[in-house]
Each structure stands twice: as C-alpha cells, then as structure tokens.
Design a protein that fits this description.
Length: 238
C-alpha cells in the first residue's frame, strides 16, 4: 500500500504538474486530488496523473441520496482511481450503493475497484464546533466511532479521520479496516486551517495506516526531500 498521500491543493493543473514534475520517474508518490483541482480540470487530469504512474486518491466527499451516489461512484471508478471518499453521514444505504457502484464501474473497464474511504468528522472541526454545528451532545470520539462502525458495516475499506481517533476506529472495526489521517504537519510547520494536527511519526504511533500531507511537502523548498522526510518519519514513528 502506497500510504502517504500528497494533497495536490493547487489552483490548476499547470501548477500541479510543475509540482509533480519535480519527482523523478522512480519516485511516484500517491497523490490526493480534491474538489478544487477536479472541478477545474476534470476527469482528464485524473487520467493523466494515473497514466504518469502516480497512485490517485480522489477526494470528492460524495454525499447525496443512495441512487445518485451509486451512479456517481460507478462513473468515477471508470477512471481507474485507487481511492475515493464519501461521507459516512449519508448512511449505510448510501455507502452500500457506493460500494456497488465502484464494483460495477471498475468491472466495466477491467480495472480494480477503488477503495472507498468514509469521511467521519473533518479535522478542521474541534469537538465544540462539531457539537454546535451538528446540534449533538456526543463527544468527538463517540461520533467518529459510530460513523466508522457504519462504514465498516457498509463494506467500505476504511475511514478518513484525525489520527487522534485511529486506535478507537481499529478497536471498533474489523481487522484490516483502514484509518487514513489528514491534519499532518512536520514539526515546526504552521497548522493552517486544521484543528487536530500531528506529525507523521506521531500519526504512525497513534495507529494511522496512512496519512495525507499537504503544505509540509507542497510548500517546501525541496518537495522531494520533504516527501522523503515524511516517509521516513511515518515509517519509523516519532
């Protein structure tokens, strides 16, 4: 599993390729393409990145009625992406429709179905913000654990959540269920718009199976060296 994802938070594909072209052919990290870039450049960019040898994590956080999400995932799976996000708050039926759609779309073009990852609570949310926004009294831990269980029941490959919840997710779900964690910064980097951040090594120690890293790599003076530092820290632990 190529489990360290670089968030391509760029305005357009020109900037994204300027960044990606700094990596030599024998270093092809996994990359996360989010809404900003996908909605600007579309499926063709995703296909080009995949063709260049990068593992592709498409982060669209799908959330709608089951039929709509199932059909959307079926279409996206035809792009031969490796990972795709949907919101666990959409419920078990919606997530099951996504799983079925992924299998159908991938089979239609003869590729492997993408691993579906469920969004639990955004790492930009503090517990107080979550409770106020969603009008709930549940703690962050209770909410994330509940949503992870629903994702497991629906057949998703894992969840996206803070590293602070990784171990409790593993404790509540089947063996092999993935905990992929954003909100990762190298020591000394600004936390930006995240509320719950940890270093790569700390995320590993907390039970994360994979991490998403953005600015610590994309805004580094030497992105390749920064990526290799993240790999080393995550592999070795804090």
């Amino acid at each position: 599993m190529n489990n360290i994802f670089i968030a391509l938070d760029f305005e357009n594909e020109t900037l994204a390729w300027e960044f990606l072209n700094q990596f030599p052919e024998d270093v092809r990290p996994a990359v996360k393409i989010g809404m900003e870039l996908f909605y600007r450049e579309g499926p063709a960019f995703v296909e080009a990145v995949k063709a260049a040898g990068f593992t592709v994590f498409l982060d669209l956080k799908l959330y709608d009625i089951p039929n709509t999400v199932g059909h959307a995932v079926r279409n996206l799976a035809r792009l031969d992406i490796d990972y795709l996000t949907i919101h666990t708050a959409g419920g078990v039926e919606m997530m099951q429709a996504a799983v079925a759609g992924a299998a159908e779309g991938a089979q239609a073009v003869g590729v492997q179905a993408p691993k579906l990852l469920g969004i639990t609570q955004l790492t930009a949310f503090s517990e107080a913000t979550m409770q106020a926004t969603q009008l709930v009294e549940a703690s962050m831990a209770e909410s994330v654990t509940h949503l992870a269980k629903l994702a497991d029941e629906a057949g998703l490959a894992g969840t996206i959540s803070s590293a602070f919840e990784s171990q409790m997710i593993h404790d509540a779900t089947r063996a092999g269920f993935l905990s992929i964690t954003p909100g990762i910064r190298l020591a000394g980097d600004a936390i930006g718009d995240q509320s719950r951040v940890v270093t790569p090594g700390r995320a590993h120690e907390m039970g994360a199976d994979g991490i998403v890293v953005g600015r610590s790599i994309t805004q580094a003076a030497d992105p390749v060296a920064a990526y290799q530092q993240v790999v080393a820290e995550f592999t070795q632990g804090a």
